[in-house]
Amino acid sequence: MRQPSTANSLQALIFDVDGTLADTERVHLSAFNHAFKEMGMDWVWDEALYTELLEISGGKERILHYWKQVNPDIKVLNAQALSDRIGRIHELKTAAYENAVNQGEVSLRPGVLKLMDEALAAGLQLAIATTTSPVNIAALLRQAIGPDWRLNFSAIGDASTAPIKKPHPQVYLQMLNALQLPAAQCLAFEDSSNGLRAATAAGLATIVTPNGFTAHHDFTGALRVVPDLSQVNLLQLRQWHAARAR
Q1: Which of 5, 129, 175, 219 has a CA that sits 20 to 30 A from residue 197's CA?
Q2: Is 117 annotated in the active site?
Q3: Residues 111 and 225 grouped into a single domain
């Protein structure tokens, strides 16, 4: 049963997806390059370039940002035609990513599922706050948790509900509203500087689990920075959360 809510007791965990729940970025990178090839484009993103592009939240936004870099005369093109082309690239990329996930190329990061199960057993709510697309979330969690994965989450915020990307706090504010909880009763989990900035701007204490693409980011302001969640349990989270509230 859900524990009674007190002023600062921990009541919910809110998770980012890409890079936080799973190391997805290399698969995303491969999917982008697949889409470029399918479209007959000569673009090839390597890991160094993609690490830089990850500073831009959102797949379509990332494509547009790069297009402006390699095509400074982009403004002379028809805006709708450009939008349609970027949309088509992103559709192909999303399909390639979903296929890769379905083939078992992505799994949850260490400790994620165990911590989620422990939190649910203790009556905490779980939520997702991401800027990725609903299709990407469903592909990953259907594969990792099962067809009823949505039943584990009280609220889900994604690119379809929160068009303003991180580091803006829109998606986190939406999740707090959906959970009907104040930020003081929740913890956020992120892997990037943009994600941390979004969560903290919404008032959330944030646990950061960096990955190979984000290890160089500035995580000033995080409640804790840990390699992954394999050595983290609910008791520790409650202790970290309570210490922050004092």
Answers
A1: 5
A2: no
A3: yes
Catalytic (active site) residue 16: yes
Distance CA 208, CA 219 (A): 8
Instruction: State the chain's maximal CA–CA distance in angstroms.
Output: 60
Q: Which two tokens stand for residue 173?
A: 């504010």
The pTM of the full predicted model, rounded to 2 decimals, is 0.91
Among candidate residues 16, 23, 158, 191, the one labeled active-site is 16
7 part of a folded domain = no
Instruction: Tally the domains of the chain.
Output: 2
Digits of tens for pLDDT over the chain (246 positions)?
444 445 689 999 999 999 999 999 999 999 999 999 999 999 999 999 999 999 999 999 999 999 989 987 766 567 888 899 999 999 999 999 999 999 999 999 999 999 999 999 999 999 999 999 999 999 999 999 999 999 999 999 999 999 999 999 999 999 999 999 999 999 999 999 999 999 999 999 999 999 999 999 999 999 999 999 999 999 999 999 999 877
Query: What is the residue whose two structure tokens read 């409640």?
Result: 223
Catalytic residue selected from 18, 23, 158, 191: 18
